[in-house]
Design brief:
Length: 192
């Protein structure tokens, strides 16, 4: 077994690619929950996503650590497929084995838990890359957008959150964060 190429703490936001039945790689966002004392890292899929179906069918995929907010926003909110499993923006990647360990119902949404075990890894870039508050705001925007039409969440409160994080991304981010905000707006299909 390989090791993770970065230290995982809390929930680390990543991009995952999983091979679909058409032999193309589906690109999606995936939060990794840091392991406890020798346990494997875990992740949760929500609903009938391509990632969930591909994990069941293929037994794994490629977890990638990216610093491009546009790639992250598209992974989180669009259906994107690639010919190759590793994105150009990946600073590091890990091919993982995904082991299904549980299923729950959360307010009508199927949640499945997975243990992720590294099999192979590569660090592509070792030069330091910074993550600004704008990137973090883009991540929070994608989370809010993904919950807009979920009955368990207050839509107006989510729209307020979106307006706030849009302002943070515009003020504290660079050009790629501003492009990512526009991409989130396009993919959200909701005018906040």
């Amino acid at each position: 077994m390989a090791e993770w190429p970065v230290e995982l703490a809390g929930v680390t936001e990543t991009v995952v690619t999983t091979r679909g039945p058409n032999d193309r790689w589906n690109v999606a966002a995936l939060g990794l929950h840091a392991p406890d004392d020798g346990d494997p890292a875990t992740a949760t899929t929500w609903g009938n996503t391509r990632t969930r179906r591909n994990f069941h069918r293929e037994g794994g995929g490629y977890v990638q650590f990216v610093a491009d907010p546009v790639d992250f926003a598209e992974a989180a909110l669009s259906i994107r497929e690639e010919a190759d499993p590793v994105l150009d923006s990946a600073d590091a990647w890990v091919r993982v084995e995904a082991i299904h360990v549980g299923t729950e119902d959360d307010a009508g949404t199927r949640r499945e838990q997975w243990e992720l075990r590294p099999v192979e890894r590569e660090v592509v870039r070792t030069a330091p890359r910074t993550i600004d508050r704008g990137f973090a705001a883009v991540v929070e925007m994608t989370v809010a957008v993904s919950r807009l039409d979920v009955d368990a969440y207050d839509t107006e409160a989510l729209r307020e959150r979106l307006r706030y994080f849009e302002s943070v991304a515009e003020t504290c981010g660079g050009e790629r964060e501003r492009v990512a905000v526009e991409r989130v707006r396009e993919l959200a299909e909701d005018d906040w």
